[in-house]
Amino acid sequence: MIRRLLPHPTMSLLLLLVWLLLSNSIAFGHWLLGGLLGVAIPLLCNPLMIDRPGSGTRPVWGVSCCW
Q1: Which Pfam families match (predicted)?
Q2: How many structural domains is the chain composed of?
Q3: For 48-64, how does the pLDDT look when each residue is reduced to its tens digit (9 = 90+)?
């Protein structure tokens, strides 16, 4: 459930912080709008994100060390 709502939580937090820094205010409305943007933008961009190849698989140490 949480993973579906926040597919990239660090990106959401970063968007909130950037919004607060750009607005130069910590009013409740700016927190609310920044939180809304922090949730909406990663949800809308999630289909465009590319998964790293091999994510979820074990690393092959012999191959990764010998280029």
Answers
A1: MNHE (PF01899)
A2: 1
A3: 877 666 555 555 555 55
